Task: inverse folding
């Protein structure tokens, strides 16, 4: 069964599930849920994992999903511990830094996480929203 909230996703990661897998499963669940359910899925504050990049990334996920799907940005996403102090680019894509600087969504960019334009894309990504 897929996690039904970011809080549950982080709990699974802390419990030992691969963090990329847990987040992917959450996104699949988010994208197949209705608009009213989506707010609940990002609303409850997840625990901090004490890994700066992951904590910042989870904050960016909540903010980006809220902005992308017209939801309220949860207050917990603005916790200073959910922001990096140094820029982070994908290690294997150093040559693409200019593209990431240009394309990174605001929620990621303001946390100094530089990525592609639609970093949370999945096969179940809604085509109409």
Result:
């Amino acid at each position: 069964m897929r996690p039904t909230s970011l809080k549950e996703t982080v709990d699974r990661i802390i419990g030992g599930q691969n963090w990329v897998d847990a987040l992917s499963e959450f996104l699949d669940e988010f994208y197949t849920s209705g608009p009213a359910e989506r707010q609940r899925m990002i609303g409850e504050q997840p625990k901090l994992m004490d890994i700066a990049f992951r904590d910042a990334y989870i904050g960016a996920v909540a903010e980006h999903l809220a902005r992308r799907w017209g939801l309220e940005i949860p207050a917990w996403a603005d916790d200073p511990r959910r922001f990096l102090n140094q820029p982070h680019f994908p290690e294997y894509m150093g040559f693409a830094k200019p593209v990431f600087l240009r394309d990174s969504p605001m929620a990621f960019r303001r946390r100094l996480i530089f990525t592609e334009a639609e970093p949370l894309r999945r096969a179940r990504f809604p085509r109409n929203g």
